[in-house]
Amino acid sequence: MEDSLRKALSQKQAAVDAQGGAVRELKASGAPKDAIDAAVQELNALKLDKASIEKQLQAALTDGNDNALSRDAFRQALVNTLERRLFYIPSFKIYRGVAGLYDYGPPGCAVKSNVLAFWRQHFVLEENMLEVDCPCVTPEIVLKASGHVDKFTDLMVKDEKTGTCYRADHLLKDFCKEKLEKDLTISGEKAAELKHILAVLDDLSAEELGGKIKEYGITAPDTKNPLSAPYPFNLMFQTSIGPSGLSPGYMRPETAQGIFVNFKDLYYYNGNKLPFAAAQIGQAFRNEISPRQGLLRVREFTLAEIEHFVDPDDKSHPKFFEVANLEFLMFPRGEQVSGQSAKRMVLGEAVSKGIVNNETLGYFIGRVYLFLTCLGIDKERLRFRQHLANEMAHYAADCWDAEIECSYGWIECVGIADRSAYDLRAHTDKSGVPLVAHEKFAEPREVEKLIIAPVKKELGLAFKGSQKMVVEALEAMSEKEAMEMKATLESTGEVGFQVCTLGKDVTITKKMVSISKEKKKEHQRVFTPSVIEPSFGIGRIIYCLYEHSFYTRPSKAGDEQLNVFRFPPLVAPIKCTVFPLVQNQQYEEVAKSIAKSLTAAGISYKIDITGTSIGKRYARTDELGVPLAITVDSTSSVTIRERDSKDQIRVSVEEVASVVKEVTDGQSTWADVLWRYPTHSSASVDE
């Protein structure tokens, strides 16, 4: 609708301009008054039509802006609550804080701890994974091999006068969004151009990004000063290991490399058997150019990563049938390219149709869906988006992101990638240690092996100092490339050959390399395993969980809105509260006795013996997301209140800890216990 209105407005503006020109010509030529009056009347009618279209377009844009305003108001209410109740706060607050760094307070730590405990249960225990814990400080050579030293960059621009730095793509994105949302005068073609830029923003080179910033006259947001051309900025925090400064290192940008470099030992620990998975939870560090969006883009964060090593020739999974019937929102690349929306798909069908590359990748997509929905993520605001071809690394077989919708839009919270054998091969090449697996044959097999034998003497004479790079490139050829080279050499005696590390083509002659195939008997197959990698941004998941769990409801008097977090008991920071109804020595003794039994049962609780009204105490703990509240109103029995329904049951003092444990451990639902115990209703304890 917006596009058609912009087109109509552009056409109407052209008509107004043309009619205005006609009126001026009539007046200049001394035309009769009747003719001029008729032309002016037509001009006024066109202006009215234009004003009507502008009004419709403004209404269409305002709908989106109103939604944005309501999202902003919701987010502000949420963030105020989170900071006031100490879920998280800006780090070093008394020194005005540092962008992109946050401290988790007591309830935030408890939520995070519960999320990670469930992650371990759902993945590490369920799949019998090998958990490791590697250092945050990583030697440069490791990250050189992985490609991070050369390629882990974002494009940055600087305010040419103040030196303030900005992320180039963010400036262009903000400009395009503001134009589309607020500028009525842009044509349909211009609007389409801006939308296209937003769609391909991640693919723009430094030159293209700089060209657009210049073309649109984008300046520094704070000062309106001109900006420098975009240039790459490495996002890793650099350090040196030891006092000499001769051993450079970095704070790790991900936890995965620690697993890859330990593959050989982990493979041995696992009995030299594939498949197996290793897991790690730990801190990662990225020196973001302009952190924003609270917990979603920070400079230090917790990652939980899995590296599932599998035979590249067999990516089936024995437990895939357990998730094959799950149905949820999927957004394959075909739908994205054709401008369609995400649609509900059955996971088994997506794998069988080849939309998802293989069963193991599909299995982890299913397990991630179950993990997120069990935490309390709304399944209607969760989708799995497939990477477009231009988003994927050249070595990746397939990649999907679990994206969660929040007030900032769709946010990538989990990446699930089939990274092929890239990482293990990269570390094998750099370290010289073969990170490979073995498959022993029951009977020896006769296989045809490709033999590429570079003649180093001839290559040395021809390429001198570049000889090593040419040799490595020749040895790295695929069978198809090698056989094509052999055929060309036999027919013409020389062939052009691209050496990527030199960045140019060289001429290879028949004397420089021998290519042949030999039949050999092999007792085992040696291969580099493929890696399926689910990578979880824990802070992002927790923030989205806060948004999906937060709501307000009116107080009993109706004079204020009360904040509530509907956390599932699984992740709630405190499982229950204990309140003596009134300040009374006997009730307080019962409350302390219940507290002891809760501690013995391993249940987190908060006891409140203040004289505040019970309604206010309920409201305080609802705001922390505490699912159950125990009110001591007699010495023999107590009431248990459920947070969201506000329903209450009466339970004996002796049973209360076991009932709470049953519900908070997930053995029973609140509905299950509601019919087993008498309900309780009292005006004195209602909010």
Automatic annotation (TrEMBL):
Chief place where the protein resides: cytoplasm
This enzyme's EC code(s): 6.1.1.14
Family: Belongs to the class-II aminoacyl-tRNA synthetase family.
Keywords: Aminoacyl-tRNA synthetase, ATP-binding, Coiled coil, Cytoplasm, Ligase, Nucleotide-binding, Protein biosynthesis, Transferase
Highest taxon of the lineage: Eukaryota
SUPFAM superfamilies: Class II aaRS ABD-related (SSF52954), Class II aaRS and biotin synthetases (SSF55681), S15/NS1 RNA-binding domain (SSF47060)
Parts forming coiled coils: 36-63
Any Gene Ontology biological process: mitochondrial glycyl-tRNA aminoacylation
Name under which the protein is recorded: glycine--tRNA ligase
Gene3D superfamilies according to UniProt: 3.30.40.230, 3.30.720.200, Anticodon-binding domain, Bira Bifunctional Protein, Domain 2, S15/NS1, RNA-binding
Aminoacyl-transfer RNA synthetases class-II family profile domain boundaries: 72-554
Record-linked SMART domains: WHEP-TRS
Source species of the chain: Vitis rotundifolia (Muscadine grape)
